[in-house]
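agent: user wants the full assembly modeled, not chains individually. Plan: 1) parse entity lines 2) check alphabet per entity 3) run joint structure prediction 4) return tokens. Steps 1-2 passed, three entities, 1026 residues total. Proceeding.
--- entities ---
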Amino acid sequence: MMSLRRHRGSISAYAGLLPYLGFALFPFYWMLLTSLRKNAEIYDVGNLSFLVQKGATLQHYVFLLTRTQFPVWFWNTLVVSIVATALSVFISIAAAYGLVRIPFRGSSFFSIGIFITYLVPPTLLFIPLSRVVTTLGLSDSRLSLIVTYPTFVVPFCTWLLMSYFATIPKELEECAIVDGATRMQVLCRIVLPVAMPGVVTATLFSFTLAWGEFIYALTFISSGTHKTLTAGTVAELIRGDVFYWGPLMAGALLASVPVIIAYGFLMDYYVSGLVAGATKY
Amino acid sequence: MRGTRVWSQGATGLFLALVVMAVTLSPQPGICGAPAEVTLLIQSHFVPAYEQELKKQVEAWGKQKGVATRVDFVSTAEFNAKLVAEAETKAGHDVVVFRNYDAALYKESLTDLDAVATDLGNQYGGWLPLGRETSFFTGHWKVVPYYHQSFPAVYRLDLFKEIGVSREQVHNFTWDQFLDAAKKLQAKGKPLGFAISQTNDSDLILYPLLWSFGGSTVDKNGRVAINSRETAKAIEYVKELAKYMPREVLGWDDASNNRFIMSGQGALTFNPPSIWVVAQKEVPDIAKLLDHAPVPAGPAGRFRSTGSYYLGIWKFKPAQPAADLIRFLMTQENYKAQIDASGGFNQPFLKAFQTFPVWKTNVPLNAYEPATENLQLQGWPGPPEKAAAAQKAWVMHIVPVMFGKAVSGASPQEAMRWAEEELTQLYR
Amino acid sequence: MGRGRTDATVPVGKGEGRPRSALPVGLCPVRPQEVTAFLFVLPAVLLIGGLVAYPFLYALSLSLTSKQAGVAAQFIGLRNFTDLMHGEIFRRTVRNSLLFTGVAVVFKTVLGLGLALLLRRAARGRRVIRGMVLLPWVVPSTLSVLGWWWMFDPLSGVVNLGLSKLGLIHERIPWLSDPFWAMVAVIIVNVWRGLPFFGISFLAGLVSIPEELYEAAQIDGAGKVACFARITVPMLRPVLGVIILYSIIMTVSDFNIVYVLTRGGPMNSTHLFATFAYEMGLASGDIGKGAAISLFIFPFLAAVAFLQLRITRGQTQ
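--- prediction returned ---
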């Protein structure tokens, strides 16, 4: 009896999910469709259909990969995102651990300070920030992004990790300290392995934000060979009032692949990471 | 325990490796003394062939001079952010292609280019008045006019023929005849349309329309003059005309009118030849039927507006050899090659260049260049000192919003009062 | 935040085993553990100090000047702010921002909760479903919003086509050319983009609620609605708090969606702080004003954040 009820409940859950999935996925389907349509069909407004009618073509993908610098942007974005993420996570872990586990004067001041930071939006900061970047000699280099991306990632990740670390029983660490371990060793050998889901969540989150960032990439970088995906695609494929719709949609889809892969592999960690991170503090 | 140690050491190592990789992969210009490189910043041009030609010419020049060169293309919409960043951080490209009133806005950050500009003017028949007006500030040429891309009408010959209007007639339209055609075209299900929205295309047709009725945002002393009988007439005209245009024009962006024509649904819009050029590749059946015509005339004359581009050098960058690059790009041979590569899309500011064959041999471009109307930028007839305010008014699309309010139901008086208030703030 | 601190701590430090001092904290000399702590926090402090605090203060000072790009700044006090408040476009922007944020966050919260509840019950193919649901959030927004723009296009837009094929509309909706519908459009896109984040985060929260609570309630005869109201929602409050606050911040300072879809139009009806600041500050070079506009968000957000902290802190304690 109970299993039947659960079964029915399950089916209604799937049914309820359909509109959500439809809403979430339809734009991607449409983008995919446009990326596979011939230009004549894209511009032909009279016959709109939900399938490719005049023959699917890969010409837009070919154009994107061979006639634009898309592969270069892809590589740039990959490098920048990975390194910026590593840097952010490193900084967040250190800060979160320091604030949660080691009591010191002014730690709550620091916590609030970190929190306030993410109330400051990038559109406010990017002019003064571009000046700082130039002063540091980083203008037009990927390093400028690597160094500035953590600014909007670290606050949230620190917050997340702080709450995550707080759930780990102090006894584990205390035993190690009594045994003579340093804080660093405690962090690396005891806390981090247990906090892995939280770390994964922070990593994925950081990677996603870095991957899709636009305005800093646009301002700090001008040479074509250093552009990232977002800035490069918009610059190359939107020229004044001419939009190269096919390659644009193809680019949008291809640009999403790495992030999707990352989430695909780490999904379960991500969810369980959020469990402790967001709920208990 | 051992596993986690390996893990943490491995992670640290990987992290360091990535940082090293990133650092070595990112060249950092400017760190080791003065760069022996001349860089040029320009908006993405919609004709890729022009970009190729420009790059080729800059490289050739570089080889001649023994300097490294680089040309960077940034999309138009984001170009302003780039300019602000470069001006503020006093770092960036040597030669920059400025637009419209940028020279006025940035005049304190630009190197004087009197020698280059006067030499070119003397050599090639003189500059168009608009070129000088928008380049000459505080007694000096701040930039060298490069090219412009103006906004004529682009329309379907066949559809106008169907309503009994010949090419000759379209080329001599008045706004009243235009309204008449609009009614007939809408009845046929193929309306005409232009943007009445917060986009550049909209300013570029509504300002000439306003001027042709005798209205303007400011008078020649820079005092706000939008609230006038003439403006009211222009607004009433557009209110009437809008009834025969698609409702969506109130939300069009710069690419919408392109799609409007290329889809075959539209009979006329105002645009530089980007539609025609792209149509030739994508929808050749429609391209065959396209032609360009001057902007219709109103009681106060016939006007056309344009997007203009200038070559300038930042003050904080060495003037040489950048100025030499400018001279190089503006020689007749090189300039003609650029014009041809752009398919005639770029229009010259030097009178001698206006006779290049590309505009004569392509019949649809006959009315594009030379522009026979009164060619002006949005700040007209205001004085050069007020150029910054004119630029802001354009960026905030005050004129299109004014017309848009009226079309959406406000009275001309209300719309004008709103515009007056906003413009007064800017022109203080 | 740092709840562990209230417990007594064990002696720490590099190999030292001194018991904790009984003196009040303020009077203690610097303890070794403080040095360690400081070192841990140092990278974050440097990052935020140099790349957030300093630029922020610089932006603050900019907003008090009439700075035009490339021209020396002139101090004008609060004139930027007063000018803005007299301007109709800015007042419109404030209204738009509040409306946009309010409606979007409410929808994301309600729909997100529903999504989380559904996801929890759908056990088979969990990973694939969650992956698909997350897609809108994961994809770079500048690119995905272009897809939406294409879909809302009046001429070739599939939204109108779909709606009319379903028989829901008879006349084309002027999505991006009517002030009302344009706001609806940007809200839809924002909800589309943010919903996955809400859903998955709430799911995480749901998953952590112990089953026993529900079982106990059922034994007591509580129905589904009562379970939801008395158990689920209270237990979710901390998550709700964090996620809603984060979303308010991100939504009010949203740039990409409005910028790509409407550029703030039609007739300034969808301008948000960020897009208007961009238009003023960057498109026309009036950096002082641009900075002033952006700064308007800040006190509003700080107030919301403070409120949020109060509510959620109070809840857990």
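agent: reporting back. Chain A has a mean pLDDT of 79. Residues 2-36 of chain A form the longest helix (35 residues).
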